[in-house]
Amino acid sequence: MVLERIQSPEDIKALSTEQLETLAQEIRTFLVEKISHTGGHLASNLGVVELTIALYLAFDLPKDKVVWDVGHQSYVHKILSGRRDLFCELRQYGGLSGFPKRKESPYDSFDTGHSSTSISAGLGLAQGRDLLGEDYSVVSIIGDGALTGGMAYEALNNAARMKRNFIIVLNDNNMSISENVGGMSSYLNGLRTGDGYNDLKKNVVGALERIPGGQQMINRIKRTKNGIKQLFIPGMLFENMGITYLGPVDGHDIRKVQRALLEAKRLDHAVLVHVLTKKGKGYAPAERNPSKFHGVDPFDIATGKPLQKKEHPSYTDVFSRALCRLAQKDEKIVAVTAAMPDGTGLKAFAKEFPDRFFDVGIAEAHAVTSAAGMAAAGLKPVVAVYSSFLQRGYDQILHDVCIQELPVLFAVDRAGLVGSDGETHQGIFDYSYLTCIPNMTVMAPKNRWELEDMLAFGLKLGRPAAIRYPRGEAYRGLKEYRQPIEYGKGELLIDHSGKGAKIALLAVGSMVSTAEHICEKLEKRGILCSLANGRFVKPFDRELADYLAGTHSLVVTLEENVLQGGFGRAVASYIYEGHPGTKVYQVGLPDTYVEHGNVSVLRESLGIDSDSIIKKMGEKGFF
């Protein structure tokens, strides 16, 4: 096998064109086999095989720096940089990350995980290179879907001022996670079919090179800002910004991409190489449904179907069905997503209410402010977004939604530990960053039924609110507790204060089920605990806190969020002020970023599973 001969980046440069094509096929087979066992991002990596090989041919890594936007398509890069043998533990606890990590390898020049950042990061590296008088190439790779993010244009605007080489590779597969939307997608469609200019350029250059003084004429044409290209591809955005445009290039022809990169390398300013690729290439199920194979769990290679069947609905499924039911009765309800209709459960809403569904592309800040505008116009917008991606619209939540007290409801999916995607995707900060904003209400359901009730309640609230729920199967326990939701009120599920219980557990969201299991396990050891569901993280139920603190000697708060600025800190501060004789023990996540790994493994390692909490409470002498 050719792949087995690649032990370092230099090995690839000795291969013939035929061997390179064989290598590409072997890499695709390797990716499908490994990801079918570990899960991970498949379609995007299948699409960049030849592009990555060409990068390794054209540049000298790790001296030269390559920045991958988002970074989930860096698997081929990891294979070629000597990490192939680590793929058996891809995205596993303590194993290979699914994203670039500087601490993992010198070939990873910048940590990435969210979209639209690579041009900014690469520009910073290039500026550092120039100021320090160093000599190396910087290449930022960005997808066409990521160009819907405003940060990319901020970076392009500044890149145009570069006086030394800086290369941007536009990996254009006509997809983000789901199919691309908006004006930039339409613009790039025009570029993809704009062959007239490139054909003419080749003919003109070829003719001029054959006559005396022809090279000087070629250089003069290249320096003309609004030259021939403008005639054949109207509105050449990149050229008009001062960034040389090369392409489009067939992204699955290694030598063509290599030549384009080498041509870009010779320029003394910013240049964009437009590369056309096919997401999922080489694996039929992923080619047919690239969105489905963007991020996958372990699957059967022959059929492409997941190995583990989903027996019960996830919180996302519950949200999806409940929102559609409510929207059938209220025509003012609209839904907004940032390129995640599948992941957030809005695909069903989009199908049933297409005129009331808005996919803004990878543009979370715009999603939030446009939703604020809809609310100001009298609609009831629901913004469905992953917790870690909502961070990208924080300023807009604070300034555009909450200052005006506009009734925007945030459905915050993938909150808490999400597992294998690691630090950039763990949704463990939203309690902290949302509860410090005036006029914001934050809720967290204990089970699937409470999520349904909170959604209905939130849409009637008439003010900014967020409902925060985790990834995975919706909890079906505690079904018998379905008290109507009152603003700012929690619920007392188990009250053993009259039976001598000294410990009260006050949990929110996903940690209510953990607290329930703690109660059950301690009761078997003869230790009774009371149990309360906070429901509201902000405003938390002060009357409930007073009752628990007044009838128990210890209140244990439980949350799947960092302790700093979280639910427990607020409750503890309140109880210590009003009930100085009552102890408060806060269970939550430490002030750190959490690595990738299985959620159950992470919970145990971080000490927030029921057994670890019980052990810690015993060590502290609480029973």
Overview of this protein structure:
- The longest helix has 22 residues, at 17-38.
- β13 (503-507), α21 (511-524) and β14 form a beta-alpha-beta unit.
- α16 (364-376) packs parallel to α18 (394-402).
- The chain contains 25 helices and 17 strands.
- By secondary structure, it is an alpha/beta fold.
- The radius of gyration is 27 Å and the shape is elongated.
- It starts with 16 loop residues before the first helix and ends with a helix.
- It has a seven-stranded mixed β-sheet, sandwiched between helices. A five-stranded parallel β-sheet has the order 1-2-3-5-4, sandwiched between helices.
- Belongs to the transketolase family. DXPS subfamily.
- One of its GO terms (biological process) is terpenoid biosynthetic process.
- Thiamine diphosphate binds at residues 72, 113-115, 145-146, 173, 283, 364.
- Keywords: Isoprene biosynthesis, Magnesium, Metal-binding, Thiamine biosynthesis, Thiamine pyrophosphate, Transferase.
- Mg(2+) binds at residues 144, 173.
Summed up, what is this model?
Catalyzes the acyloin condensation reaction between C atoms 2 and 3 of pyruvate and glyceraldehyde 3-phosphate to yield 1-deoxy-D-xylulose-5-phosphate (DXP). The protein is built from 25 helices and 17 strands.
Question: What distance separates the N and C termini?
Answer: 62 Å
The backbone outline, from C-alpha atoms, is elongated
Radius of gyration from the alpha-carbon trace, in angstroms: 27 Å
The portion of residues assigned to helices is 40-55%
Low-confidence stretches: 224-235
Q: Give, in spatial order, the strands making up the sheet with the most strands.
A: 7-6-8-9-11-10-15
By secondary-structure content and strand pairing, the structural class works out as alpha/beta
Helix run count = 25
| Quaternary structure classification | single chain
Output mean pLDDT. 91
Q: Biggest sheet, open or closed, and with what strands and sense?
A: 7 strands, mixed
Function: Catalyzes the acyloin condensation reaction between C atoms 2 and 3 of pyruvate and glyceraldehyde 3-phosphate to yield 1-deoxy-D-xylulose-5-phosphate (DXP).
Subunit structure: Homodimer.
Keywords: Isoprene biosynthesis, Magnesium, Metal-binding, Thiamine biosynthesis, Thiamine pyrophosphate, Transferase
Pfam families: DXP_synthase_N, Transket_pyr, Transketolase_C
